[in-house]
Amino acid sequence: MLKRKKAILVLEDGTYFEGLSFGAEGETSGEVVFTTSMTGYQEVVTDPSFKGQIVTMTYPLIGNVGVNREDVESDGPKAEGFIVKEISEIYSNWRAEDSFENYLKKHGVVGICEIDTRELVKKLRSAGTMRGVISTVDLDVDSLISKARSIPPMEGLNLVDEVSCKEPYEWEYGTWRLGEGYPKREDFKYSVVVLDFGIRYNILRNLVDVGIKPIVVPAKTPPEDILKMNPDGIFLSCGPGDPAAVTYAIETIKYLIATYRKPIFGICLGHQLTALAMGASTYKLKFGHRGANQPVKNKRTGKVEITAQNHGFAVDESTLPDDLEVTHYSLNDGTVEGLKHKSKPLFTVQYHPESSPGPHDSRYLFREFERLISDYKGR
Ligand SMILES: NC(=O)CC[C@H](N)C(=O)O
């Protein structure tokens, strides 16, 4: 057993958990959320949608397959902190290059282990997500409670600017294959502009798999410039924070929906921003949907998809305009999981069909986007 420093996790309601430090030492704060993914911790910690959040995994043993260079969803960790029950001090996997613990240390991510994550998650589930602080340097509970209460609440927070790319770039790699890694594609049929609100790499890889070359642009790119690029489609990405706070993106999407005649596809934050641009409202869920095992029903086919999700806000169905119809809904709580425009080639989902980690049930959505693009090509 490694010799570990004491660490404390304190929630804004005064609840605290004494545990041990893992990853970097120091102090961090954010909204404390939980994910029910059983593994995929490296994809989780690098998901830009976790910006501003401290993540706890409900699965009790984390780190046992180590980390590698490939399983990242962005250029490095984005979560503010990490909470686990037991951090495995040994790792074993043929792809592993280092331990999860060293990876977090190297990137300065503060973690806490050896706390009762079941108790923590039950608390968050009944009281709702809360702001919290993890510290290895200040072990005074009252001081940490006041720190937790002083961080900005997630509602009203625009975090897109912190994760969106600064310069446009193109992406050419498909999804991972045994023996090949991420294959580079040369023959693209179409190109789409991806508005980067906090893109996950596996979305780009899935677009490449169906023959679409993604051209990723910063979130603040004016819509006129996007139209000048004359793309075959537009993709609206996922991302962190409160969708209603990203007002410039809502305006951009409003403009695009009014003027662009080709297909638009949005995922997660992109879905919420589209609904807001069409005049609907979003609201904060009590504890969100996070995990790789979230059941969603496709209304058109009647099929149930097991999906990967990571969101704390949702579209309010009662505020939807006539032009939008619900295509998918959550079987856990009945909330909106997919939308489609009744007359334009525009569709969005709240969940993550790129599912990294997660089951591949919803990958058909990338093929549908490609078919739609092919229908509209040259029109
Ligand atoms: N993954 C996402 O795009 C998350 C969207 C938004 N930040 C939410 O929490 O609901």
From TrEMBL:
SUPFAM superfamilies with a match to the protein in the record: Carbamoyl phosphate synthetase, small subunit N-terminal domain, Class I glutamine amidotransferase-like
Reactions catalysed, as given in the entry: hydrogencarbonate + L-glutamine + 2 ATP + H2O = carbamoyl phosphate + L-glutamate + 2 ADP + phosphate + 2 H(+); L-glutamine + H2O = L-glutamate + NH4(+)
Entries under Pfam families matching the protein: CPSase_sm_chain (PF00988), GATase (PF00117)
UniProt GO MF annotations: ATP binding; carbamoyl-phosphate synthase (glutamine-hydrolyzing) activity; glutaminase activity
The organism's place on the tree of life at top rank: Bacteria
Pathway(s) the chain acts in: Amino-acid biosynthesis; L-arginine biosynthesis; carbamoyl phosphate from bicarbonate: step 1/1; Pyrimidine metabolism; UMP biosynthesis via de novo pathway; (S)-dihydroorotate from bicarbonate: step 1/3
Region: CPSase, residue numbers: 1-190
Active site: 268 (nucleophile), 352, 354
GO biological process: 'de novo' pyrimidine nucleobase biosynthetic process; 'de novo' UMP biosynthetic process; glutamine metabolic process; L-arginine biosynthetic process
Ranges for domain Carbamoyl-phosphate synthase small subunit N-terminal: 5-135
EC number: 6.3.5.5
Keyword check for Nucleotide-binding: yes
Keyword terms of this UniProt record: Amino-acid biosynthesis, Arginine biosynthesis, ATP-binding, Glutamine amidotransferase, Ligase, Nucleotide-binding, Pyrimidine biosynthesis
Residue sites binding L-glutamine per the record: 49, 239, 241, 269, 272, 310, 312-313
Family in the record: Belongs to the CarA family.
Self-association and partners: Composed of two chains; the small (or glutamine) chain promotes the hydrolysis of glutamine to ammonia, which is used by the large (or ammonia) chain to synthesize carbamoyl phosphate. Tetramer of heterodimers (alpha,beta)4.
Function: Small subunit of the glutamine-dependent carbamoyl phosphate synthetase (CPSase). CPSase catalyzes the formation of carbamoyl phosphate from the ammonia moiety of glutamine, carbonate, and phosphate donated by ATP, constituting the first step of 2 biosynthetic pathways, one leading to arginine and/or urea and the other to pyrimidine nucleotides. The small subunit (glutamine amidotransferase) binds and cleaves glutamine to supply the large subunit with the substrate ammonia.
Protein name (database record): Carbamoyl phosphate synthase small chain
Naturally occurring in which organism (per UniProt): Balnearium lithotrophicum
